[in-house]
């Protein structure tokens, strides 16, 4: 089992509340989403593993069981071309849960006209593979979001 923790502090709102049909419809995979606090922060690794994909607005960490967890920092933030995001890790890095990956400012994302909501998704999983999925709760960085069985 893999425990997936929150990459940042905020309020869990669930995937259905994400303002993007690809995420809200779980097309990328099941999981949940965090509406971050409106202050500069660092998104951290939600699991132990290897960063296999890294962009200013999103990253994927694959754990030792082969589970890929996507953290997407905001919605349509790829359109910001990296403005307001700073990579503090590199693709291929081995990370521990809680290690810093991307420094960013959710309030700046909102000022740019984008949503700061952050989907945290279990890639290539089915909804029944997850348990204890948080849907509505305040979280701190490192709090459990769901378990991947």
Automatic annotation (TrEMBL):
Transport among keywords: yes
Q: Which domain of life is it from?
A: Bacteria
- BP terms from Gene Ontology: phosphoenolpyruvate-dependent sugar phosphotransferase system
- Residues forming the PTS EIIA type-1 domain are 20-124
Q: Where in the cell is it found?
A: Cytoplasm
Q: Which GO terms describe its molecular function?
A: kinase activity
- Keywords, comma-separated and alphabetical: Kinase, Phosphotransferase system, Sugar transport, Transferase, Transport
- Spell out the GO cellular component terms annotated for this protein, sorted alphabetically and separated by semicolons: cytoplasm
Just give the chief location class. Answer: cytoplasm
Q: Which PANTHER family match?
A: PTS SYSTEM GLUCOSE-SPECIFIC EIIA COMPONENT
Q: What is this protein called?
A: PTS glucose transporter subunit IIA
């Amino acid at each position: 089992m893999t425990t997936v923790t929150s990459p940042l502090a905020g309020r869990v709102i669930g995937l259905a509340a994400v303002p993007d049909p690809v995420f809200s419809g779980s097309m990328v995979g099941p999981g949940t989403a965090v509406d971050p606090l409106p202050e500069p922060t660092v998104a951290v690794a939600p699991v132990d593993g290897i960063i296999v994909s890294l962009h200013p607005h999103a990253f994927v960490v694959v754990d030792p069981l082969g589970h890929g967890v996507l953290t997407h920092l905001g919605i349509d933030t790829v359109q910001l071309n990296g403005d307001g995001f700073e990579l503090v890790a590199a693709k291929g890095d081995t990370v521990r849960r809680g290690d810093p990956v991307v420094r960013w400012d959710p309030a700046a994302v909102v000022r740019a006209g984008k949503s700061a909501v952050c989907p945290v998704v279990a890639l290539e999983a089915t909804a029944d593979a997850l348990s204890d999925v948080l849907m509505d709760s305040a979280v701190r960085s490192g709090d459990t979001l769901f378990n991947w069985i």
